[in-house]
Design a protein that fits this description.
The structure holds two protein chains of two kinds.
Chain A (H helix, E strand, L loop, with lengths): L1 H10 L6 H7 L4 H17 L6 E3 L3 E3 L4 H17 L5 H14 L6 H8 L3 H17 L3 E5 L3 E5 L2 H18 L10 H6 L4 H5 L6 H14 L6 H19 L8 H8 L2 H17 L5 H13 L13 H19 L8 H19 L9 H7 L1 H10 L1 H7 L5 H24 L1 E7 L5 H12 L2 E8 L3 H7 L4 E4 L10 E3 L6 H10 L10 H12 L5 H12 L15 H4 L5 E5 L4 H14 L5 H14 L4 E3 L2 E2 L13 E11 L9 E8 L7 H12 L1 H9 L3 H10 L2
Parallel strand pairs in A: 5-6, 5-7, 7-8, 9-12, 11-13
Antiparallel strand pairs in A: 1-2, 3-4, 10-11, 12-13
Helix pairs in contact in A: 1-3, 1-4, 2-3, 5-7, 5-8, 6-7, 8-12, 11-12, 11-14, 12-15, 14-15, 15-17, 16-17, 16-19, 17-21, 19-21, 28-29
Chain B lengths: L1 E7 L5 H15 L4 E7 H4 L6 E5 H4 L7 E4 L5 H19 L1
Parallel strand pairs in B: 1-2, 1-3, 3-4
Helix pairs in contact in B: 1-4
The chains are: A alpha/beta, B alpha/beta.
Chain lengths: 699, 94
């Protein structure tokens, strides 16, 4: 490839990007970079100028055309003569050759295959020996015959799988989307490794695995899928060589009842037909283990055996890691729990059976979550002692990812919900108002409302992102913003700099749950249910969102909320009379009644909203407990002080817990008020029933 | 798009009713508007092209564009009170 690559670079009169080169040569950027290094090595060795690489611009080479010509020629010659493999490549090839060799092979034969000298091969072999020792394999040397690889069949196969997976990755194969594995393997530059798959209908095997996925109602991860395909391919090769795998009888018995065993049997029968061979019973057991160990994405976790054990182990991991991280909230993270649970089942099978799952992002995980990785490693101990074996870093890496994601989530969540400390001179009154305004405008949490002198005390135990204060004071430890108690426009702008407002979009779980309960159950105590559900679902923010409980007017204006021909002397008595009903029915605290009166005193008789009708009400935080309405008709009309609409003969009281829950009833009420007949009817009504009948007649 | 704030003392009753009426009026006259209701405290800090309220509260919004309505619910009266100013602002925004 080097000569071709060099030709592409020199034939262009400007710098060429690696991605462009990769495309032109039908290769991957990774391979291009690799070959660029080779060219540079070659140029250096032959004392030519190096390639010029400019980040974000590309590669170019400046030399006279004669020199370019000369380099080209040398490069081509070199490629024809021999390909110089790196030591790592040579080691891979040696292992590949050994694994496929039935009998001994001499070092000279190996050297020939590698285009290397005998001494190089001997040097490489020393390293190979160490490498294989870690994989429970040994190289036997015989003075007369050469060398040979030995070890348990399962370790031999695992070495083969690892070799193939590693090369698949080096060639950028796993990153390519779903192209048939056969094509990818054909791109291996090392024919010896590709040989492992010669005469093999890989597409057929892929088909079998896809079929197994369907039978198991699951989807394997890409890595697991290809590991499985490669495993089966190797198994077939080994069976053909007469190298059966042996599985302990008892273990085999354990698997026979699983649905994975059924799927494995199915795969085996298809393979027997296609490849004209007999697949031993133990081999089916081995495929079963691989199916069980394949990383499951979509399987139903409750359907698996050992459900309870897995739950307990997951809980142990979770609490150990949360404790070390001092992130108690992780224990509450259901998504994390189910993610870990789902991952744990196949991971345990892999661990039990020494199956390896390649983790292509392990290095990144270790770099980005170095500390977390160590904590998770310790957190996995309960599982390791359960199984009696240790996880390797690749597996730990996957678990680390789960925790990493959960931590990121916490981070963004706390970014959304800033913790605010409100500070004013007394910690009362205006500060309360200010707090409710802050809650309305921003997605924040008010951690406390305190007086100035308490600040240092509170900051000792409370984490605070921002102090909002009405005082002209300075704070050392935490950023602060001074605002007008009424929170004027400029204050809001100012605060926005600190508190970016995120749009809160609650999931509809709350409404859906409530709907379901309403549909299927008789509700004894609606309010208690609502309160309970709110607590469980932490849905304070969801209550009253559109689609949630918005009672109708007739549901609020019931008989006990209505009184007719009430005898009062002035507007205050009207409000007391209506307030009494609200209070008696448990909808408001007593202070709500005073607040209604204060509203009129402070802001005038605007509550007389149309001719002869008043609508006394106050703010939700003035002591409203539930959404509700009450209606009074007056024996003698009284004046509220409204030039336009006095005198008042009908009063409709309103109490609301937020800005939304009462909207439906309010809209209905408006229609009622638009209707001139309503007032006439109300004035003439001599009983509650007449009013209720009128309201019910208008749907 | 016009932004309109309807304001009353407590922000849960009258101003919401007024918002509904303003929504209707805007629709009738093909004015694109986003109408929000607010109590008079929070209205201080909110941005809007037009604030609609009753005369008792109007003085709170000195220096801002305010329309005063005589009623929170009588659509005919509201329309008489706000339509002119609504159309004027709408056109200036075009």
């Amino acid at each position: 490839m080097s000569a071709q690559l060099f030709q592409k670079i020199t034939s262009s009169n400007h710098a060429v990007k690696i991605s462009t080169l990769a495309e032109a040569l039908h290769s991957t950027p990774r391979q291009v970079r690799y070959n660029l290094d080779k060219i540079d090595e070659f140029l250096k060795y032959n004392k030519f100028q190096q390639l010029i690489r400019k980040p974000n611009v590309g590669i170019f080479y400046s030399a006279s055309s004669e020199i370019v010509e000369m380099i080209m020629q040398k490069l081509q010659e070199r490629e024809v003569q021999h390909y110089i493999a790196s030591q790592e490549e040579r080691m891979d090839i040696i292992i590949a050759v050994l694994l496929q060799q039935q009998d001994y092979i001499t070092i000279d034969d190996l050297a020939e295959k590698l285009n290397s000298s005998r001494s190089t091969v001997v040097k490489d072999l020393n390293k190979v020996r160490n490498l294989l020792a870690n994989k429970h394999l040994t190289i036997l040397s015989s003075t007369n015959h050469g060398i040979k690889i030995t070890g348990e069949e399962k370790y031999l196969r695992r070495a083969s799988i690892e070799l193939l997976m590693k090369n698949a990755e080096t060639q950028g194969i796993l990153s390519e989307e779903m192209s048939p594995i056969l094509k990818r393997i054909n791109t291996f530059s090392q024919s010896e490794i590709a040989n492992m798959f010669s005469n093999m209908n890989i597409q057929f095997i892929e088909g079998c695995v896809i079929e197994a996925e369907k039978q198991l109602e699951t989807t394997f991860s890409d890595e697991a899928f290809y590991a499985l395909v490669i495993h089966i391919a190797i198994a077939i090769k080994r069976i053909k060589l007469g190298r059966d795998i042996v599985m302990p009888y008892q273990e085999l018995k354990n698997y026979e009842t699983t649905k994975e065993f059924a799927a494995a049997s199915y795969i085996a029968s298809k393979l027997e037909e296609e490849f004209q061979l007999e697949i031993p019973y133990d081999e089916i057991g081995y495929i079963t283990i691989h199916l069980l160990g394949s990383n499951v994405y979509a399987a139903n976790p409750s359907s698996s055996e050992d459900w309870a054990t897995l739950q307990i182990l997951t809980g142990k991991i979770l609490s150990a890691v949360s404790e070390s991280l001092q992130q108690e909230s992780l224990i509450q993270d259901e998504q994390l729990f189910s993610g870990l649970l789902e991952h744990l089942r196949p991971a345990i099978y892999r661990l039990k059976n020494d199956l390896k799952l390649k983790n292509p992002v392990l290095e990144e995980i270790k770099n980005n979550y170095h500390h977390l990785f160590q904590i998770v490693k310790i957190g996995m101990v309960p599982v390791e002692s359960h199984v009696g074996k240790f996880f390797d870093d690749e597996e730990i890496g996957y678990f680390t990812l789960h925790f990493g994601a959960a931590l990121e989530k916490i981070k963004t969540k706390s970014e959304v919900e800033k913790k605010i400390l409100v500070v004013c001179s007394t910690g009362l009154g205006t500060a309360r108002l200010l707090s409710s305004r802050l809650l309305q405008l921003f997605n924040v949490k008010i951690v406390d409302i305190i007086a100035y002198r308490q600040v240092s005390q509170v900051l000792k135990y409370q984490q605070v992102d921002l102090i909002v204060t009405t005082l002209s004071a300075k704070f050392d430890l935490v950023p602060w913003v001074k605002v007008n108690p009424l929170l004027l426009e400029k204050d809001v702008e100012n605060l926005k700099k600190y508190l970016i407002q995120y749009h809160f979009q609650p999931k509809n779980i709350f409404a859906e749950t409530l709907k379901l309960i309403e549909e299927h159950c008789d509700i004894k105590n609606y309010d208690a249910l609502l309160l309970g559900l709110t607590k469980i679902l932490r849905a304070d923010n969801m209550i009253g969102q559109k689609g949630v409980v918005q009672p109708l007017l007739r549901e609020l204006l019931t008989a006990n909320m209505i009184d007719v021909n009430v005898d009062v002397k002035n507007w205050e008595e009207v409000i007391y009379a209506g307030g009494k009903i609200l209070e008696e029915q448990g909808l408001v605290e007593h202070r709500y009644v005073d607040a209604m009166i204060n509203t009129v005193k402070k802001m005038g008789a605007y509550i007389v909203i149309t001719k002869g009708i008043a609508m006394p009400h106050a703010r939700p935080e003035d002591g409203a407990k539930k959404v509700g309405m009450a209606l009074l008709t007056l024996k003698n009309p009284v004046n509220f002080g409204s030039k336009e609409n006095d005198p008042v003969s009908v009063a409709i009281f309103l109490c609301a817990v937020d800005n939304i829950t009462h909207l439906k009833a309010l809209a209905e009420l408006m229609q009622l008020l638009d209707d001139d007949d309503f007032k006439k009817m109300a004035d003439q009504a001599s009983s509650k029933d007449e009013i209720i009948a009128y309201i019910n007649s208008r749907k | 798009m016009l932004t309109i704030l309807t304001v009353c003392g407590n922000g849960i009753g009258s101003s919401i009713m007024l918002k509904m009426k303003i929504d209707e009026i805007c629709e009738d006259h093909h004015i694109k508007a986003s109408v929000e209701s607010a109590d008079f405290n929070s209205a201080q800090g909110k941005k809007a092209d037009l604030i609609i309220t009753v005369k008792e509260l109007a003085y709170q919004f000195e220096g801002r564009e305010v329309a005063v309505v005589r009623s929170y619910i009588n659509k005919k009266k509201i329309e008489e009170d706000v339509l002119e100013i609504l159309l004027r602002i709408h056109e200036s925004k075009m």
